[in-house]
Amino acid sequence: MYLLMIDWWFILEKFLLVGFVVTFSLLIAMYTTYAERKIAAFLQDRRGPNRAGPFGILQPLADGGKLFFKEEIIPLASSKFLFVLGPSLAMLTAMLTSAVIPWSTPLQIGGRDVPLQIADLNIGILYVFGVVSLGVYGIMIGGWASNNKFSLLAAVRGASQMISYELSMGLALIALLMLTGSLQMSVIVQNQIVHGWHVIYQPLGFLIFFICALAECNRTPFDLPEAENELNFGYHQEYSSMKLGLYLFAEYVNMFISGTVMATLFFGGYDIPFVNEASWGLSPNLLAFIGFVVLLAKAFFFLFVFIWIRWTIPRFRYDQLMNLGWKKLIPLALVNMVATAIVMLLRNR
Amino acid sequence: MNAWEKLYLPAVLKGMFITLSHLFKKKATIQYPEQKRSFPKVFRGLQVLNRDEEGRERCTACGLCAVACPAEAITMEAAERQPGEEHLYREEKYAAKYEINMLRCIFCGFCEEACPKDAIYLSETVTPANYSRAGFIYKKEDLLIPDPTKDPEGYQKALGHRAKKINN
Amino acid sequence: MNITQILFWFLSALTVFSALMVVVSKNPVYSVLWLIFTFFCISGHYIMLNAQFLFIVNIIVYAGAIMVLFLFVIMLMNLNQSSEPKKHRWLRMAGVVAGGCLLLVLVAALKNIDIKKQVAETNTGDIGLIGNLGKVLFNQYVVPFEISSILFLSAMVGTVVIGKKE
Known about the structure:
The structure holds three protein chains of three kinds.
Chain A: H1 2-5, H2 8-43, H3 59-69, H4 80-96, E1 104-109, E2 112-116, H5 124-145, H6 149-180, H7 185-195, H8 198-201, H9 203-216, H10 241-266, H11 284-310, H12 318-348
Antiparallel strand pairs in A: 1-2
Helix pairs in contact in A: 2-10, 2-11, 3-10, 4-5, 4-10, 5-6, 6-9, 6-12, 9-10, 9-12, 10-11
Chain B: H1 3-6, H2 9-22, E1 47-49, H3 64-68, E2 74-80, E3 93-101, H4 110-114, E4 120-122, E5 137-138, H5 140-143, H6 152-159, H7 162-167
Antiparallel strand pairs in B: 1-4, 2-3, 3-5
Chain C: H1 3-24, H2 28-48, H3 52-77, H4 89-111, H5 130-139, H6 142-163
């Protein structure tokens, strides 16, 4: 009897949405690896992968297949459960963030409004923040479980980097929250549709957030945790086969998700700039699709910038990294926060 | 450094636009198996044992190339031409066995310079990879140029841009 | 039993089990990992009370920051079974007695509380949402809140002073 009271449509619709978002993020991440190699090649006057399929489109499949079929080596002295848990956690935390991103305006199917957001949490941004802070565990557990001192050192290095940059990320977000007065992602997007994109009001906040996102994704110039040439390859040194693949893949999923988060928080989410798309009189489903494409375009732009930066700027030294995080970004973020507060106070008066 | 330079952001942006400009530049890649880079005129590649226009081997097994070879890569055994073999060998003496160890060869071209009969020259190909060491010891049949009377095309191809030089 | 109850009992069992594992695990790193798991279970309870803010703050602060520092220290000190000092028999006895006393105190304190009167507001309560919580925190409890912030500030100053000593 009780089962009849559950809104099965609701569950089905969420289930489908989760499945779609997960597969879609994985697909995007797959092709981000391809884009990474192609863009890297173009920036260096090369051609990049072009053998597997036309223009090398099947390259990610070939890479994935290779990783799947490689021999799986688990070090004898490692703790096996944690050794497997590490990459799984890295992947899990990378995917979790996508739950609160509003992908577009609601769809209308059979008279029902189907919101294209898995969970419109009251504390959306904090949720993103929390999941990001959990991303450390994938690195730390993997590095420790390998039972290799270089892995452990790299894990500690990576974890301290992520903790340091989380702080300024949070401070940059607080200024943003003052503007919207809400932590809910959907409200933040609505606010931008009405008042204009947040990047106009918070350019410094965006810059800080962007730098921290680079650091959180372990992207160059902050890729010390996985510095392969001078720092002995980092926390996934002992990993092989698809477990290594999961670590590397998680980075790309993270990139995509942080691109969408940045687009949502600072660049209006699914909003098309300068036009009022609601007045076009299109059907809501078409509008939702257009919004989704717009959000993707913004996210892809950030992905491109991430890759572009990787192939331009050399890696920081560890002390430079810590100096930037603690002595430059945090004071800057604090100043930004206080300045925002003062301006808002004066305007409200 | 002043405060503006200390920000590093302008320098970073400048660098980013330099790399961005490379996005639109001509690619330097040569797609190897389909496209091949043309060798320069003076390139010294794999040795070839030459024939004359009638398809006779030029080599007389004088051994000057083996003496000239600084890496001692060349070994040969001479034999006397029998009656009835005039269409095969140009002189009365010929190399019954002629081997070059490509693992030792340094492609200096001294053999070519030492040869009084224009019987050996360095072509415009590189030594192909091989699975065994034995495969790198090139026998006479590996080194000989295709017979111009039977395979004129292959002969011309093997001669390359030397065709002119040898004929006059 | 409805779904909320099933979830509650499941989460509670999981919490107790993982809390026990914290104590039972021989390897300190496993202990910390179980502790993190325990925090997650507790966060699950917060969600069932619709206290979303507490849920996420519990994860950010405890699971995401403090436990990372724990892990840091334990991993770097490389504590494992072989390096653990043998404890004296009397010391173990003292530990058991002390733990038992704590249990006694807890049971004695909680025995007379009439829990049945205070029904937890599952799913419906909105006091845990960030807006309401902020209003309570900055109106009713503003003095304790500010005092605790001063406490944190002094801790920060203290670390800076210790760090600058050389």
